[in-house]
Design brief:
single chain; eight-stranded mixed β-sheet; two-stranded antiparallel sheet; about 25% strand; elongated
């Protein structure tokens, strides 16, 4: 079985069309179609449904997807190990990450890494906890910058962060040194990234706090601006808004709420050389930021 054909299949399914796969891999759509046709002949059954609305996996194709992803990744690992033996570091790294880590930590890590390893390309997926866990389970990302609470496989710690309150500056609580968790009851609340098993939802559930969820926001900065306009309060990790300016009071919580951030990787010793090198850069650089 050819890894290039398998990669064409994965890009077609992930992108929803043969055209998306062709653009990603530098082939024509007809070339992608021929590769998948050949792959289906090889396995003996259809792998994708071809419709005007796009490409979706058949039931049999969906059953094979995890194995095909692992097969393609193994091929990449072999190529990267061979490049390492020759004294080079090449390959592609797919990283899943919190939005805050993507904005505050990863630019410095990526800059230093690519200065030394220009042959490695990096793709980054910013998402919430539920989506990141799904991507890891399907082997669609090589490693994940996340909270230890949701990590699977091997764990590489990086730094501690705190959950903080964002409140309008004209609220009476803005005069306090810390925002009491029990005063969140029935306050107008802006939920960041709802329905994604995020750290804020987990904290609220664990402490059995009833909040008046007036608004939701899929982007942290949107939630920040809503607070700035006096529409309610919100919670987020400190790292998310630590460089933002605005008419928002950022307060620690009482009692304090701390999370451990780091890198989750299925099995560190089996990770590609490029992935292991990137993790090494992250562990060296993040503590200095």
């Amino acid at each position: 079985m050819d890894t290039v054909k398998c990669e064409a299949l994965l890009h077609s399914v992930d992108g929803g069309s043969f055209s998306a796969a062709a653009e990603r891999m530098g082939y024509t759509p007809s070339g992608i179609t021929r590769m998948i046709d050949a792959l289906e002949v090889e396995v003996g059954f259809p792998l994708v449904n071809r419709k005007r609305s796009g490409v979706t996996p058949t039931k049999e194709g969906a059953d094979l997807m995890p194995l095909i992803r692992a097969f393609v990744q193994s091929g990449k690992n072999i190529a990267e190990h061979a490049a390492t033996i020759k004294g080079l570091v090449e390959g592609n790294i797919s990283i899943g990450t919190y939005f805050s880590i993507a904005a505050q930590w990863l630019p410095s890590v990526i800059r230093a890494f690519q200065d030394d390893h220009p042959g490695v390309s990096i793709s980054m997926v910013e998402a919430g906890n539920a989506e990141l866990a799904h991507l890891m389970a399907e082997s669609r990302i090589d490693c994940c910058f996340t909270n230890r609470r949701l990590a699977t496989g091997d764990w590489v710690p990086l730094a501690k962060d705190s959950i903080v309150a964002w409140i309008p500056t004209d609220w009476p609580e803005a005069e306090l040194d810390a925002f009491p968790l029990n005063q969140m009851e029935n306050k107008p609340f802006i939920m960041p990234l709802p329905g994604n098993k995020n750290d804020v939802e987990t904290l609220i559930a664990e402490h059995r706090i009833h909040v008046d969820e007036r608004l939701t926001a899929n982007d942290g900065y949107t939630a920040w601006r809503m607070v700035e306009q006096g529409l309610g309060m919100s919670l987020n990790n400190y790292l998310m808004g630590c460089t933002w300016q605005g008419d928002v009071r950022v307060m620690p919580l009482d009692p304090p709420q701390e999370i451990e951030l780091g890198i989750s990787v299925p099995y560190l010793q089996a990770a590609s050389p490029a992935t292991r090198a990137f993790i090494e850069y992250a562990t060296r650089i993040v503590p200095t930021l």
